[in-house]
Amino acid sequence: MNDALQGKTCTPCRGGMPPLTRSEAENFLAEISAWRLDHDARRIERSFRFADFRAALAFVDSVGALAEAEGHHPDIQFGWGYATIFFQTKKIKGLQENDFIMAAKIDRLFAQVAGA
Fold first, then answer.
1. Rg (the chain; Cα; Å)
2. Beta bridge partner(s), residue 89
3. Most buried one in 1, 2, 68, 91, CB count within 10 A?
4. Closest CA to 28 of 92, 110, 103
5. What are the CA-CA distances from residue 111 to residues 9, 47, 105, 108, 115 (Å)?
C-alpha cells in the first residue's frame, strides 16, 4: 500500500479540469495495485470479500464514514459476503487524484478489518 496517497486529503473538485489521461491513471494505479482501471480509463474499482453479510455491511458503513470525512464519495455495490467500490469524479466524467487517494485509504481500512 502507498503511504504517500494515504497521507493526502481529498480536495474539492470544481469541475472544468480535464480527467487524468490513461498514462497518469496507470501511474497512480501502480500505487494501488488491487484496483482495476476500466477500459476507457474513466473509473477504477475493487471488490472485497467477507465472511458474511454483516461484515460486508460494516465495511461499507466504514467506507461511507471515510467518504463523508473526505468529501469524496464512491459508488458501492454490496451483498452477502462482498462489496465492490467504484470511483469516478462525476464533475469531470473521469479520474482525478482524489479517486486514488480514497482507494488507498480504503485499502488501509480493509487491511485493518481483515487483520482484526
1. 14
2. 94
3. 2
4. 103
5. 19, 13, 10, 5, 6
Q: Which residue has the cell 480527467?
A: 19
33-62 burial, b at 16+ Cβ within 10 Å, e below that, comes to eebebeeebbbbbbebebeeeebbeebbee
CATH 3.30.1360.20 fits 42-116, yes or no: yes
- Residue 12 burial (C-beta neighbours within 10 Å; 0-12, 13-18, 19+): exposed
Domain residue spans of the chain: 42-116
Residues comprising the chain, all counted = 116
- At 1, list the grid cell: 500500500
C-alpha cell at 10: 481529498
Beta carbons within 10 angstroms of residue 116's beta carbon: 6
Give the pTM.
0.91
